[in-house]
Amino acid sequence: MAHRLEMREMTKKYGDFTANDKVSITLGAGEVHAIVGENGAGKTTLMRMLYGMEQPTSGEIVLNGKPVAFRGPNDAIQHGIGMVHQHFMLFGEFSVAENIVIGYEPRKSGFFLRKDAAAKVRELSKQYRIPVNPQALVANCSIGEQQRVEILKVLYQGADIIVLDEPTAVLTPLEVKDLLQTIRNLAESGKSVILITHKLQEVMEVADRITVLRGGKVTGSVAKDQTNVDDLARLMVGRELQQLSERLPLDGKPLLQVENLTVRDKQSLLDQVSFTVHHGEIVGIAGVSGNGQSELLQAISGLRNIQDGTIRLSGVDVTNQSVAKVRETGLSHIPEDRYLWGTAKQESVEENALMGYQRKPAYYRRGVILRDAFRRVVQEWVNRFAIKTGSKQLNEQAGNLSGGNLQKLIVARELGHETPFLMAAEPTRGVDIGAMEYIHQALIEKRNSGDGILLVSSELSEIMALSDRILVMYKGRIAGELSRAEATEEKISVLMAGGSVHGSSQRAV
Amino acid sequence: AGGGNAPADNGQASGQAPAEQKEEPAVKKRIALVLPEKIGVNPFFQQMDDGAKKAAEELGAELKTIESTDYGAIEENLRVAVAEQYDLIITSSFESEDALKKVAAENPDRNFAIIDTVIDLPNVRSVTFREQEAAYLMGAAAGLATKTNKVGMVVAMDIPLLKKWTGGFSEGLKATNPNAEFIVNYVGSFTDPAKAKELALLQASQGADFINGAAAVGDLGVFEAAKEKGFYTAGQDVDRTVIDPEHIVLSQLKGTDAAAYETVKSFVEGTFQPGVVTYGLKEKGVGVTYITHDSATPLHAFIGQEVVDKVKAINEEIVAGTRKVPESF
Amino acid sequence: MEWLDWSLVSSTIRMVTPILLAALGGALCSRVGIFNVGLEGLVLVGAFAAIVGNHFTGSLFLAVLFAAAASVLFSLLFSYMTIGLKANEIVVGVAINFLALGLTTFALRAVFDVKGAFYDKDMAGLPRLEIPLIHDIPVLGEIVSGHSPLVYLAFLASILLYIFFYRTVTGFRVLAVGMNPVAARSLGLKTTRLQVMAILLCGVLCGVAGAQLSLGQVTMFTEGMTAGRGFIALVAMMMGQSHPLGILASSLLFGFMDALSIRLQGFSLPTQFTSMLPYVLTIVAMFFLKDKNGGASSNQQSAR
Amino acid sequence: MVAVKELCKSLVQPLLAVIIGLLTGALVIAAVGESIIGTYQEMWKGAFGNFYFFSSTLARATPIMLIALGLALAFRAGVFNLGAEGQMVLGAISATLVAIYLPAPGIVKILAALVTGIVAGGLWSLMAGYMEAKFRIPLLISTLLLNYIAVLFASYLVSDPFQDKSGSAALAQTVMLEKGAWLPKLFAGMSVHSGFIIAIVAALLLFWVIRFTPFGYEVKMLGHNPFFAQYGGIHRIKVMLTGMFASGAFAGLAGTVEVLGAHYRFVDGALTVPNFAWTGLMATLLANSNPIGVIFTSILLAAFQTGAMGVERNTEVPLELASVIQAVLILFISARFSYSWWKQRKKKGGESHGVA
Ligand SMILES: Nc1ncnc2c1ncn2[C@@H]1O[C@H](COP(=O)(O)OP(=O)(O)OP(=O)(O)O)[C@@H](O)[C@H]1O
Ligand SMILES: Nc1ncnc2c1ncn2[C@@H]1O[C@H](COP(=O)(O)OP(=O)(O)OP(=O)(O)O)[C@@H](O)[C@H]1O
Ligand SMILES: [Mg+2]
Ligand SMILES: [Mg+2]
């Protein structure tokens, strides 16, 4: 079979830094090709070159036997290449149909035929079995639906090669299942798919071929049936994965006490939520995203006012206090959206790391921030978490870090506060398995040292691996609570879908 | 530049004209006219420049006109004029008062003149106008001429300076026609003929048949409104009736050009004296067309000879001092 | 109702026209993510060019065209500086205002050999259109009929612009560029071209606004005759959240408040206070519009 | 080595810009048949020709610089304040009234006036900030509108209740301050006054605050990503309001020193006609909101103005043309000319409208 796409010896340099070093891959029609690798291995960079968003320093792209050069995404699209970006490229105030047809709008003498657009989208949606509501505003769509919009857009543009960059990182388990099914459907109908992901389980489920990148180089390219998760992990990380530390049995005093927490904004978002996190305990909150987790995080951290209820941290009433006050009382917080809440992209790594430390006595004297002392600390974090900062080191723009490395930076910053209580939302979203292991280890250690952690994650495996106790949220309420011992993926899933589980111990508060 | 001329200048300032006249033909007198703003929307400064230029040309002096971009630039320009050894430095207007006070006091051996306001310093000649007297005549004429008993005025801005115009006019109007209604509107800008026109149109719609323009360049808008709606109007400073004699029936005059001319002339001829010179109706430094000065256009029937005669009588009373026009309002 | 008669309403409509046109132009720019503070200058250039065009061609149609062309030329400069040379758009806007004032003043002297103002009483202004049937209806006729064609054009322009944004493909793409430039670029939309097009169209509207000022409302040119209308247009644009109909409403609102302040001049209140009124009332009006704020202005907040 | 290279790179852009601006200006001058060299010479002389002219340039730069510094802080916090004019005027009138009517010795008057000017400008600006925080009235609109209100209000104060009724009473202005309340001139007979020193100190102070203090850090982060700042415990509203207050305070101070150091009374229009506010805004933007950069851009913009005045005084080039040249220069110094610009020029044609 002739290859539909060949990328030969692709190299990309940013200044002195080589992000891709003679990377070659091939892709056949109807093939699902997974690309895996550590954070910063160069996966996204490779795809950006394929999509014409970056010009390769050297290398060649051969499409259907003919060498091509793309000057921009437009060229790539014309050649049947479509890309669903790690961060969606959508227009929130436009409808689903408008977002899909943009650039190739059905038109009549200059007028935009919106009805035709909706009809075409409906048709496309049926053809590929990707359900969307053409009329809905994208801003009101769930993440999963937004992603389907992205995929439909690419299909609408006539792509034969579809690149998906970490498509599952932001999806709920159910949505992941649907997506993987969609990918299979697409492959069956003759499309080629390049899938970038950190979740090896998914890779094994859906890919035909797998290429592993490390440090910008290909370390292996294998067919699925000739490998397994552990081999892949070793290829990726370059070492064996370790087991998590043992969890010490602890019976701590209450640390965070939430009572009857109620948040309304036109409609009810949180309804009488009560729970407690103890010292030496990780409480996991599972749930399909959009069921009040975000509001809960914001309410506890002081970013959002609550209408009713109380929040006590280390015995101090922090209800409706400022973020600064809550943090002072003992909160650190890994935010759910690293780009929105967690960083200032144009600023340097160092400035991003400084957030929250600028008034701490250790780094602040006589009105001035003690930069040198602080820089040493950040350097230590970078070393400890193996954060790849690029050529400018701590002066590198945070926005230039790969997604996973940025996440590691945020985790390091928040752990560095050494507060008794940590709120960790999706702490490993988009990070590679090596780093995930490291972050999980760090969380367990924090727990073992007697601190309390509230873990919010849409990743069931993560919740199950880390939590001492699991709360499931559904429609702004705590739908059920399971102890570590009694929790199974099945039980949690039922609760997440709004069902009820017998025998769930109602140890509220 | 050296200060070698200073003693000679000093002598000249104290009025020893004959001695100095002898050496003069060799060196042209150098005169600077420092204007407090740009020559532009305000015809007043154009006139002053013209008058000074005319005198300089006729009498063989060198004249340099310096326009100031803003308030802060006036003092700077005066200082530079001093530094560049101009023999006489003329400036104008209230805006220049502070600057000239400072500069003239610091340079007691130099000659200065200021037009349109008074500065009481031994080396400054002040030339002022009593515009309110002319405005009074204008108001008197309007009061006599109006058929609707409604008279309007479109004024550039509500600032003290322009009260001489509105106040004088209103007094004159009251004097001849106590029942007349006086409508005043302010444009809020010196450079907005479009709004001035709309204001005039509004006043016309309220029944005014005579609308006096005192809106600087906005007057042109008032004239245009008059042409459209057929009411009568008047302009400022120079004889505006020539623009549209059908509708512009009067003009309030101000002899800035003459003041500048006279100042330059007296200096070149050596009769320049510090002190205050004021121009009013009596000195014919201000006036109104047909009443105190002739006009290039024939008298319009709306005003009519009868009104002109009555206002002429009022003029004479003011000149004679039997009728008093307030100094300020 | 003595102090709010119908001629005042009709006057308001005329007075508001240049502001409305310029604000619509500003909206086009703001919709592609460019905050254009050069409106004042663009209108001024248009006003001058209209008079020059009329003077030399004697054709009002050509005069308006000339006005539009001159403002477009300035817009071209604006777009080249901001997009081509990546200059700060606010600096360029302010400089354009300075440049327009200086050039028109200079050209006034160079072309007509006058300072301050050019007025020719024989020059014909734009005709007043008397709309056949409506003209005879008492109140409505007075308000609606008898304006210069550009007045009707301005109102039409806001509707056309609405259709452009929300019905045509190009308008749709313009909105996309302003909403999310990164995404628009990644889709291969010709962002630069769309931006330049919007800026040039803004030039056309500002040029027409100038023509209405110098040939519609009066028939003359005077230095700085825009007298701050460009900045009011900027406010109207922001208040109307760059939505054509919103701008129509906010311009009219401002116009009526201005008219009201004129009427209050007769009373004993100092003029400074009556002049303040439109601005104060506009701020008060913002209190009631507060729920819908954000959209257009939030991306301008970070203009830096 | 790297630092030198960086420095050269950062200098290339403004230099190129000035050169291109001068060339364009030359075209304009040539078009009206004046001597290019002669005109530029006069321009240079008017701005920097001798110590007297240099000091005038510095005097003119003073209010521009102070306004620009205030705006720099606001912009860094991501707050767009277009209300410097109103804040300056209101600060100036309040300060003037205090300096006139406070029964106290001169130095106390000066200090009280400075404080009043700062507070009045700051509060006026704060009001806009408050309306944004509390009622979500966009700053861009409210600050622009508040300008008109402040200017008209000050005009009312000096044309009626506090007008100088002595003499002709023809101008809307307050009475003259007594000599003791004047800010001293730095050199006798020169226009630059101690307000310039205040401005320079303020610039250094602001630089220090932004660079080294937690507050400066917080302002910066708020400007880059308000969500991140809030998440990190920075009180968004508090910093925004502080930024607004400070920027208004600087503008108020600008008006105050201009009155106390140059005019010695509040004259209606004397602060608005020279366009200090817009010029200050440009100075900030050109300096990329860097306080040290602001010192230079303010002096540069002031030099354009004093230079244009020199051209007006000493050449036949009309004043209008001088202002055209000034505008052209400003236009071009804002452009980002760079190596890449040249490169882009060269390969133009091939690459037309790809991805920018
Ligand atoms: N514009 C840029 N300038 C400088 N360095 C860059 C730039 N873009 C990416 N890099 C660097 O190139 C490397 C590869 O980045 P890339 O985004 O391709 O990683 P990735 O494999 O997609 O990682 P992740 O799994 O975290 O998304 C990273 O170290 C990153 O810091
Ligand atoms: N519905 C569609 N599905 C797939 N490809 C399409 C579709 N519509 C258009 N295209 C292709 O996309 C390309 C550009 O489409 P189109 O003609 O709509 O662009 P355009 O509107 O001319 O772009 P611009 O106006 O920006 O120049 C063409 O090659 C066309 O074949
Ligand atoms: Mg990536
Ligand atoms: Mg990633």
UniProtKB/TrEMBL annotation, chain A:
InterPro entries from the UniProt entry: AAA+_ATPase, ABC_carbohydrate_import_ATPase, ABC_transporter-like_ATP-bd, ABC_transporter-like_CS, P-loop_NTPase
Keyword ATP-binding appears in the UniProt entry: yes
Residues in ABC transporter domain copies: 5-240, 250-500
Presence of the UniProt keyword Translocase in the record: yes
Keywords: ATP-binding, Cell membrane, Membrane, Nucleotide-binding, Repeat, Translocase, Transport
A single cellular component GO annotation: plasma membrane
Lipid bilayer topology: Peripheral membrane protein
Localization (cell): Cell membrane
MF terms (GO), sorted A to Z: ATP binding; ATP hydrolysis activity
PANTHER family (UniProt xref): CARBOHYDRATE TRANSPORT ATP-BINDING PROTEIN MG119-RELATED (PTHR43790), GUANOSINE IMPORT ATP-BINDING PROTEIN NUPO (PTHR43790:SF4)
Protein name: ABC transporter ATP-binding protein
UniProtKB/TrEMBL annotation, chain C:
GO CC entries: plasma membrane
Transmembrane annotation, as ranges: 6-27, 34-53, 59-78, 90-112, 150-175, 196-218, 230-257, 269-289
Annotated coiled-coil segments of the chain: none
GO molecular function, one term: transmembrane transporter activity
Topology of this chain in the membrane: Multi-pass membrane protein
KW GTP-binding (keyword) present: no
CDD domains (alphabetical): TM_PBP1_transp_TpRbsC_like
Main location: membrane
InterPro entries reported for this sequence: ABC_transp_permease
Keywords: Cell membrane, Membrane, Transmembrane, Transmembrane helix
Protein location: Cell membrane
Protein name: ABC transporter permease
Automatic annotation (TrEMBL), chain D:
Keywords: Cell membrane, Membrane, Transmembrane, Transmembrane helix
Pfam families documented for this protein: BPD_transp_2
CDD domains from the UniProt entry: TM_PBP1_transp_TpRbsC_like (cd06580)
Membrane topology recorded in Swiss-Prot or TrEMBL: Multi-pass membrane protein
Cellular compartments per GO CC: plasma membrane
Subcellular compartments: Cell membrane
Any one GO molecular-function label of the UniProt entry: transmembrane transporter activity
Main location: membrane
Protein's name in the database: ABC transporter permease
Organism, scientific name: Brevibacillus invocatus
